[in-house]
Amino acid sequence: MRDFIKAAGEADKYEQMKELSAIFKERSRSKENRGSFPHRNILDLKASGYTSLTVPADRGGKGISLLEMIRLQEKLAEGDGSTALAIGWHMGITKNLGEKRKWDDELFSFLCREILDGKLINSAATERQTGSPTRGGRPQTTAVLKGGNWVISGRKTFTTMAPALDYFIVSAFIPSEDKTGNFLVPREAEGLSIEETWDSVSMRGTGSHDLVLDEVSIDKTFLAEILGQDKKANGWLLHIPAVYLGIAQAAQDYAAGFAKSYSPNSIQGTISDIPSVQQKIGEIELELMRAREFLYAAADRWDRAAENERESMQPLLGAVKLAVTNAALTVADLAIRVVGARSLSEQNPLQQYYLDIRAGLHNPPMDDMTISLLARKALSRLD
């Protein structure tokens, strides 16, 4: 399966992702795989070459556009939301690093070579004491320079894809400089361990366990960047609403298929002929259309924008995440209403779709922060 995506055009990559998505859906529905980390799915994605598609072209990758990335992520999420969200962080962070080029060139080139070789990365920034890093809290994890090495100690929560990661981009406070930095930490570093704490009923398969760093020593060149206070616009975070849109599409497909096949003996034909059911399915279609157009338009605008325009897009990007994720929740709720009480069976995928989409409310940016940003944007027009 190795490299079957590498030489493909955009349409071919989409069709290939569609095939993998169907395989992942079958696996997610089997009792033995339900709720467990999708090791086989991740291996298939690595073997396909998918995980290197966002490596920049000047570093040996394909450097695919944001729009193409979110379309592929959306299709993947139709098969398995946990797999899509987990790999989406790797895909998006790789793309973001390639766009912004804030790392030392030698370190970035090293990481790109590792990704081209099948290695996986994700950020480890959240902590229990500070909450979401988007709220601005200073990390309790510390980094101290001793000789030629940084020594890092602390604990990170919500480290998505922890069972499969090869590198962790760890945020840590540097007391000697009164600054916070991002450090590239290899999985094999002594003192690094994973504590399996992830017991969420939503997106259980992401394996978002705790990362424990007990005096982990890394070379001083693995300080990737010093973090500033300014919050930059991040187009790559659109991978998040893309995943929830994909899950919502799966919910619609299930509900519509059920409506077309279910024929209780109290009616002639199937329940798809009942006006109230058609009303719900039509409302679902409207929600999906609006959400998809909004998401794709924003991604396309990002791809076409110059750097200065991108920096003004933060309100739009937040609005897209809020609108698409909440639309996906509406879709899942309407799908459950179409199917009825049997949708709440543990064997029925709709209840898991609904629970998985609920997780989107807790992915960045949070709804309240987006609404506040939009309010400031509206008010500033009167200044």
Automatic annotation (TrEMBL):
Residues 124-216 form the Acyl-CoA oxidase/dehydrogenase middle domain. Residues 240-360 form the Acyl-CoA dehydrogenase C-terminal domain. Keywords: Flavoprotein, Oxidoreductase. One of its GO terms (molecular function) is acyl-CoA dehydrogenase activity. It comes from the Bacteria. Pfam families: Acyl-CoA_dh_2, Acyl-CoA_dh_M, Acyl-CoA_dh_N. Residues 31-94 form the Acyl-CoA dehydrogenase/oxidase N-terminal domain. This is Acyl-CoA dehydrogenase. It comes from Bacillus infantis NRRL B-14911.
